[in-house]
Known about the structure:
Blueprint: E1 3-6, E2 13-17, H1 28-34, E3 39-43, E4 47-49, E5 52-54, E6 58-60, E7 63-64, H2 66-87, E8 94-99, H3 101-112, E9 119-123, E10 141-147, H4 155-167, E11 171-177, H5 185-197
Parallel strand pairs: 2-3, 2-8, 8-9, 9-10, 10-11
Antiparallel strand pairs: 1-3, 4-5, 6-7
Amino acid sequence: MQHIFIKGSSETTLILLHGTGGDEHSLVDIGRFLLPNANLLSIKGNIDENGLTRFFKRKSFGIFDEEDLIFRTKELYDFLQSAAKQYRFDLTKAVGYGYSNGANILGNMLIQIPRSITQAVLAHPMVPRRGIDLPDLSHTHVLITAGDNDPIAPMSESRELERMLKSASADVSMYIGHKEHAISKEELEAVKTWLKKKELIQ
Ligand code: MLT
């Protein structure tokens, strides 16, 4: 997959997954702000939706193509494993940060491939899939950042995802802002606080 890797001085790797219409450059500044010493691996999605890049197909606005989501999640995980070998980092110590469409594939990876990523920030996510058996996620730490007036990823979805992950025994924290679907400065400060609490900032 098209990507940028920036070597850091700590053992942590921050995996960055952009929203619809973004690319591998979109979240690099945010990554640097969140974990200044970490390796950054910023990935571009493989789907072109009328010129807008995404990580998986959708049938219509807010309706995911679940078959493609499952396939692309495995494809992304395979890429992460090969990148970990190539750049010599430990995937088990990585933190995922996904925004919007990137949060949705990351959220799906948590439940489709348990222990693939055990520390994840889901920024403005939706529920990736419903009606499936959930794995044991007791080793997984998640921060959901949401907007109580987000018109694209409604608050009800973030709450449903929180309940879903908690029911699988994940450790889930929430930040709720009021900046619609945008990533705000306050939200990023909340992410930093969470990363500090999880002892991921060295
Ligand atoms: C999605 O399709 O993943 C969500 O609707 C968010 C987005 O617009 O990317």
